[in-house]
Amino acid sequence: MNMQATLAWPFFEPRHRDLLRQADAWLEARPAWTAPQSRAEMDEQCRRLVAGMGQAGLLAHAVPDPFDASARIDTRAVCLLRDRLAQHGALFDFAFAMQGLGSAAIALDGTPAQRQRYLAPARAGRRIAAFALSEAQAGSDVGALSCAARQDGDAYVLDGEKTWISNGGIADHYVVFARDPRSAGAKGISAFIVDADTPGLEIAERIDVLSPHPLATLKFTACRVAGGQSLGEPGQGFKLAMRTLDIFRTSVGAAALGFSRRALQEATQHALQREMFGKTLADFQLTQARLSQMATQTDASALLVYRAAWARDAGQGSSRDAAMAKLAATEHAQQVVDAALQMHGGLGVRTGHIIEQLYRDVRALRIYEGATEVQHLIIGRDLLREARERSAPAAALPSTPGPNRATPNQERA
């Protein structure tokens, strides 16, 4: 099912159809993304994309209005854009999504001054944002982070490292999560806005990965951050980080959905054109069955993603909805892309081919913003919590009958 057909579902409003037309018009003027030949080229591509999306008004859907503290992210809009941008190229999706993730914590808990200083230029594409949470020993286990924030008068001094930071090396500011060194676990974690040129902050390493995008390890050495750069309430950083990730977790599924759509499109066209044994690949029942499976997985992902997005926008969303959407869409996308590559044969593993690119692009989505295994835990625990709540009233009944209640034997009689 293409995106126009998806938009006919009751999850959407006319403004969402207008948004897709706006995105399509912007993308038509830009060639599909190909892997950069150098890190410098990649960085420059990312900067241009952020600037272009800002000028086109697309970033207004990822970065809330800085002058409206009540402004909320339209999750359906974010998902539609990630879905469409991912079909065009992985870096398009990356540039859009990371601008939103790096701004969301400021939108949630920033002061009016912080919102105006950082959100306005990020929304316009003039300033690149980043979200610095992960550490070498604290990925899925956020409570294990060790980057320290020691209060010193009216300021804070940060020491430690952050790694796997998207936009690391090109960001103008980072939302950094660090803990009071006297605390343990999730307690004592606070958030800070750290400008990239702050003394004591350095890019310790640029990290190269399967799907090229700006990524780095940050090192903080006696990095002094003014008290006015602290974000939200002290010690509440863990909750802020989780609230931020909850906003964008469903949209990771949308990006995976975009990769699935593109892989299915490429596989279908290839099957119609590839001649084999006097027929086309599409004439074989095995090919038809495989395409059927790919299409079903893609549509199932779309239903879960846009149900979760609609529910969140309607104030009915849950962590389980988002977890199911991300889990299904990313796992399905991996399978759909792999099937498309198999169908392309040797062509599918040729460097620079669209299917080879998709194969590299899709893999990380099963890891970041909550690995597949973490999503299973979220879903399973929520199901068990509901089951316990349903059984609680029965468990609370008295073990002996009350004055107006018959014993089990009397009831059977």
From TrEMBL:
**Molecular function terms, GO-annotated:** acyl-CoA dehydrogenase activity; flavin adenine dinucleotide binding
Annotated Acyl-CoA dehydrogenase/oxidase N-terminal domain ranges read: 15-125
Q: Is the keyword Oxidoreductase assigned to this protein?
A: yes
Where's the Acyl-CoA dehydrogenase/oxidase C-terminal domain?
Answer: 235-383
Q: Which UniProt keywords apply?
A: FAD, Flavoprotein, Oxidoreductase
Name the cofactor(s): FAD
Instruction: Tell me the Pfam families matching this sequence.
Output: Acyl-CoA_dh_1, Acyl-CoA_dh_M, Acyl-CoA_dh_N
Query: Where is each Acyl-CoA oxidase/dehydrogenase middle domain found?
Result: 130-211
Q: Where is this region: Disordered?
A: 389-413
Keyword rRNA processing attached: no
The organism's place on the tree of life at top rank: Bacteria
Question: What's this protein's family per the entry?
Answer: Belongs to the acyl-CoA dehydrogenase family.
The name on file for this protein is Acyl-CoA dehydrogenase, middle domain protein 4
Organism this protein belongs to:
Achromobacter xylosoxidans (strain A8)
What lineage, starting at the top, does this entry show?
A: Bacteria, Pseudomonadati, Pseudomonadota, Betaproteobacteria, Burkholderiales
